[in-house]
Amino acid sequence: MITLFDSIKKQKLPFSPICENQVRIYVCGPTVYDDAHLGHARSSIAFDLWRRLFLFLDFKVIFVKNFTDIDDKIIKKSLQTNTDVETLSKHYIESYLKDMHALGVLRADIEPKATDNLPQICTMIESLLDKGYAYAGEHSDIYLSIAKDSLYGSISQRTESSPAHSRIQNAQDKLEDKDFALWKGYKGKEDIAYDSPFGKGRPGWHIECSAMIEQHLAYKDKDFGIDIHAGGADLIFPHHENEASQTRCATGRELAKYWLHNGFVNINGEKMSKSLGNSFFIKDALKIYDGEILRNYLLGVHYRLALNFNEEDLVQSKKRLDKIYRLKKRVADAPLLDSIHDTPPHALSHLAHLKQLALKSQPHFLQAFLEALSDDYNISKALSIVEEMLSHSNDALTKTPKDESLKVAIRANIACIEFLLGLGVKDAQSYFQLGLSEQAKQEIESKILERQRAKANKDYALADRLRDELKAEGIEIMDTPQGTTWEKV
Ligand SMILES: [Zn+2]
Known about the structure:
single chain, 489 residues, alpha/beta, Rossmann fold, 3 domains, 4-stranded parallel β-sheet, elongated, binds zinc ion, coiled coil, metal-binding
């Protein structure tokens, strides 16, 4: 059984899908006016992990994450940089996808953009007008009347006017201060506009998500549109409250059965300034740390708790990843299906075989690991179970290094970690050579060849000198029965 913490009921609830064995998840994606920061990374990784768990447990998952490409902030940036909004948002969408790929976050099944869903947005606004929930102000603005939704506030337990509301121009048009804009009439040349049945203008932020969910994900004949709506805790109010209200008023259904929110990333400026400066951008962190090392660090704190980003902790957490790869290297010759290396969802077709292998000789690990993850993603417990498995496996391999079935079982356990956590996904050899350019790698390889020639010629002094030279560069050489390998230490 899976339990998850529902932000509305404020308690852990057993997960019961709307339709058996299916999960429909919507995550609020970024507003694309700047590069993605560590907060985006954390949110993306948190719900990527949930998605992987559902997939692993044989749920049919539809995962949608949008791009908000119509927003005040995009228009502002476009004016500041003298770039048209389309070019600007295209640039930041590509940059976001590149960063997420580096972090091992799987692409969503559907990635809708507000600009591609304007007819659906307009249809929803029309429906809200027809049903009397929305009203037109002056200047072609359209607002949702919060007073008409008796359940407004049920998501956040808040109903006050938020700063996001008060930003809206022509606020005097509103019947009540806390009403929010569904449509913003064109305000002149420092604005952007699209044609609509309500005149030229653009949609408000909140309606974009409601309409995209309706278009791409929602059940039309159930009490709830989708199973899980997720995003950062900062979105609960007003964004999610408003999304829920619009959908409820327009469709008569509740938007989501469960609401999941991830905690913030706090940055302690002084501690962080080590090599990252005060940069909060993923692209800057990726210049120094491999994406998998960042992922490993960011997933180590429970998704609902605040993460105090600290570069020393990041470096320290790499030891966990090193241990996974150290063991993976020891069982690298275990015969296992190549396809098990596929990343989900491509790996799904081999999942049954993988689970069978993992459960056959060492059932305890996978059972305990899944139990921890299924308990509202109890990552600390899950990671301590991984730690135990690594330690037991190393001991067992030392005792019986030639036991092929043991190697297969261990390799299968690691493959489960790869699928579920997205860690350990590289070839072990290349992991221990991370951070070197292709040219540097070639130079090392040619020195190793030179050393082998020296040994063949019994010129041991030269061979030793070459080994020492590499050691001085931080390169450790290992002579094994399969040949010489090397690692960056
Ligand atoms: Zn949203």
